[in-house]
Write a structure and sequence with these properties.
alpha/beta, Rossmann fold, single chain
Length: 496
């Protein structure tokens, strides 16, 4: 049975999965969502016998129904190969009585690889299916990890160009070095004088700019997105929550059908939304525990029902979560509103005009599966140190935010249900923050000296992604004001 996609702001939109992936964002500014969430067809016991690639097919075929079996299996095989440093792709590691789902074994050592390894293949396949002749321009804003993962996926891919904007003072030194050393004749990386929300807003404005779209079309270009607003990013993320449940059953941590809580550190809400989709598909997930850093806009939303971005923007040690506009939350709001696109659109218009909106009591009832809390910078550092001292296991600041919030949840609820924490980045991407938390003496060492010290302390190998950038030449030097993002894109494409 074919599954179609509609816009969170206009139910009249009715497009195939491949068209939604190509378009990225609906023309009305809404996000594409499946008209219904499909149910998994295989029993839990069968999941445990499948490889990551095989399970990916069983999940994704239910969402991407206009892709043939051969097309989808080819995309999966090309994505989840030896770019990952473990055959498991997303292994589970137990430490301190909880299981960590390690999502950082891909080419850029962050969870974004889990989806961005396959998105270029899905997009090129979708372009052929839809007889697209224009060059696809991937336009993306990043808070640190999406940028490099998207660049790695699309670099030198025929028929595409990729432009990444990042907050020049809002990413870690390693994250920045990964992006600005990116090779590829079709790539452009630009730091903006502003924060991630400003970069994301600038990208959304360009997607909604009809005059820009016309100028691009006249010159043989069309936009698409590699951000998590693209449904082609969200669907592959659902897979690893099914895989995590299967892994817990296989390891005899839980019995088939037993509930499993999931803790996700999130800023843009895409990663935890994927867990919610997995639950709706039939994975026995209990609580969806949403972990925020000091930019705790999501914590406040879960506590009050009011989403309010009118607050100071805080730069933290977990920069991928330094976000005040959680774009993917719109998909949940649309669902809570009973798939009422007009009601959702009014709330998003309030957010745009006033910076806040309030959901109804009836909509808040739909949040019962979620628990939200946050970790301060001091709590994040203390959690990194505690986990290291207890188990010799080193986690990055984003994962530490999740581990801290999980401890708060346990203390409040006295709930001992088995739990998986999504570990979203390698500690090697945030060596200064990690080593400062562990021993407090990192200020006198260079970033790469800290890499070697972390390897010694954790008794792990330095990832290939880090070794590659030690001496790599900086190729992208451009910086612009947030207000000049459109001009920068036009210049790169030669349509100014």
């Amino acid at each position: 049975m074919d599954l179609y996609y509609t816009s969170t702001r206009d139910r009249r939109e009715h497009v195939t999965a491949s068209a939604a992936i190509l378009q990225g964002l609906s023309k009305d500014g809404g996000l594409f969502v499946p008209e219904s969430i499909p149910r998994l067809t295989l029993p839990i016991e069968a999941w445990t016998k499948l490889s990551y690639q095989e399970l990916s097919y069983e999940v994704m075929k239910l969402f991407l129904t206009d892709f043939t079996e051969d097309e989808l299996k080819t995309c999966i095989a090309r994505a989840y190969d030896d770019k990952f440093d473990t055959a498991e792709i997303a292994p589970l590691k137990k430490a301190g009585g909880v299981s960590y789902l390690e999502l950082f074994h891909g080419a850029t050592i962050a969870f974004k690889d889990m989806a961005l390894s396959i998105l270029p293949h899905l997009m090129i396949c979708a372009a052929k299916k839809n007889r697209v002749e224009r060059e696809i321009v991937i336009l993306t804003a990043t808070s640190g990890d999406t940028g490099k993962a998207a660049l790695a996926g699309f670099a030198d891919v025929t028929g595409t160009r990729i432009i990444v904007f990042y907050p020049k003072d809002g990413v870690s030194p390693i994250q920045k070095q990964q992006m600005v050393t990116q090779r590829g004749a079709n790539t452009l990386v630009v730091g903006i004088e502003g924060n991630f929300d400003q970069a994301q807003t600038g990208v959304k404005q360009m997607f909604a700019d009809n005059s820009l779209a016309e100028a691009m079309a006249a010159n043989g270009f069309q936009f698409s997105s590699a951000n998590s607003i693209n449904i082609g990013r969200l669907v592959p993320q659902v897979v690893y929550y099914v895989y995590a449940y299967a892994g817990m059953v296989k390891a005899n941590e839980i019995k088939a059908g037993e509930p499993l809580h999931v803790v996700v550190p999130t800023g843009n809400f895409g990663n935890i939304l994927a867990a919610s989709y997995a639950k709706q598909m039939g994975v026995p997930i209990g609580k969806l525990i949403c972990a925020s850093n000091e930019n705790k806009v999501l914590f406040d939303f879960f506590r009050t029902g009011t989403y309010d971005r009118n607050r100071a923007f805080i730069l933290t040690s977990s920069p991928s979560m330094d976000i005040l506009i959680s774009s993917n939350l719109e998909r949940l709001i649309y669902q809570l509103a009973g798939q009422d696109a007009a009601a959702n659109r009014r709330l998003m218009e309030e957010l745009n005009a006033c910076g806040s909106y309030q959901i109804s009591d009836a909509m808040r009832e739909g949040l019962r599966d979620f628990y939200g809390n946050y970790a301060s910078e001091a709590e994040t550092a203390a959690t990194i140190r505690r986990v290291y001292e207890m188990d010799g296991y080193v986690i990055d600041p984003h994962t530490a935010v999740a581990a801290c919030v999980y401890e708060k949840y346990k203390k409040e609820s006295r709930d001992d249900t088995k739990t998986v924490i999504a570990s979203t980045a390698s500690p090697y991407k945030f060596t200064r923050s990690v080593m400062t938390a562990i021993d407090g003496h990192s200020d006198v060492m260079s970033d790469f000296a800290l890499v070697d010290e972390l390897a010694k302390r954790s008794q792990t190998n330095v990832p290939k992604a880090i070794e590659e950038i030690r001496e790599a030449e900086v190729l992208h030097h451009q910086v612009c004001a947030a207000s000049d993002m459109k001009k920068t894109v036009e210049a790169f494409l030669g349509i100014a």
